[in-house]
């Protein structure tokens, strides 16, 4: 059985999409980011908890503050990307559950009254949303450069608070010259899938 999604869209979102390491100077607009969010917000999360929070770093001052917390190899591309997004998990997401899960508002207290349960759920579900975000960036015709090479405690202190855990930093824009590393191998279907 073939996929329903058009092959051109399959290429845009997956087969031809790459992690960009250089970008051209063309800005990423607020309208583009809004369109990305308005698409990816529909990706599923458990209890519709939607714990992803996004900090957009646009200003030169913000960029300077961020770059100092990035791993050495990630600094140049973060300094020059048109837009950088810090993706974080909101560990107090449960406060929104009565509105996000109106048919089961008691889920807030029944499942998420304890901080460790919230942190575990927020980390998993915000990571799902981060993956949706990357696909959304690609759907907008842009390249994403997701990175986890940074000082998490430094980014949390500089840009977030104790209720938000950084998950990744994503450079966003149109790819520049020599943007791609060679594509790394992938595991085959038989190496990944087991039928019982």
Tally of individual helices:
9
**Unreliably modeled segments:** none
What is the total tally of β strands?
A: 4
Mean pLDDT: 96
What are the secondary-structure elements, in order, as H or E? HHEHHEHHHEHEH
> Nearest-angstrom radius of gyration?
18 Å
Sheet bearing the most strands, described? Answer: 4 strands, antiparallel
State the shape.
globular
Cα(first) to Cα(last) distance is 21 Å
Q: What share of residues is helical?
A: 40-55%
> Structural class of the secondary structure composition?
alpha+beta
The largest sheet has its strands arranged as: 1-2-4-3
Strand residue content: 5-15%
Explain this structure to me?
The chain is of the alpha+beta class. Helices cover 41% and strands 15% of the residues. The protein has helices at residues 7-15, 30-40, 60-67, 75-80, 97-100, 107-112, 115-139, 152-159, 189-192; strands spanning 52-57, 83-90, 143-147, 164-173. Keywords: Flavoprotein, FMN, NADP, Oxidoreductase. Residues 18-174 form the Nitroreductase domain. Its EC number is 1.1.1.298. GO terms for molecular function: 3-hydroxypropionate dehydrogenase (NADP+) activity.
């Amino acid at each position: 059985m073939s996929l329903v999604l058009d092959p051109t869209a399959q290429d845009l979102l997956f087969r031809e999409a790459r992690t960009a390491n250089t970008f051209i100077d063309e800005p990423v607009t607020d309208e583009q980011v809004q369109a990305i969010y308005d698409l990816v917000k529909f990706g599923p999360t458990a209890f519709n908890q939607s714990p992803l929070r996004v900090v957009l770093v646009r200003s030169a001052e913000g960029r300077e503050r961020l770059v100092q917390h990035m791993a050495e190899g990630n600094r140049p591309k973060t300094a020059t990307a048109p837009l950088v997004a810090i993706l974080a998990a909101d560990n107090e997401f449960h406060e929104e559950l009565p509105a996000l899960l109106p048919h089961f508002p008691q889920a807030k207290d029944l499942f998420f009254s304890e901080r460790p349960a919230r942190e575990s759920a927020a980390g998993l579900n915000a990571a799902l949303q981060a993956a949706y975000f990357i696909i959304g960036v690609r759907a907008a015709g842009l390249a994403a450069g997701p990175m986890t090479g940074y000082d998490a405690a430094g980014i949390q202190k500089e840009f977030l608070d104790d209720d938000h855990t950084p998950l990744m930093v994503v450079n966003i824009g149109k790819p520049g010259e020599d943007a791609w590393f060679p594509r790394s191998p992938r595991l085959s279907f038989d190496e990944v899938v087991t039928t019982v």
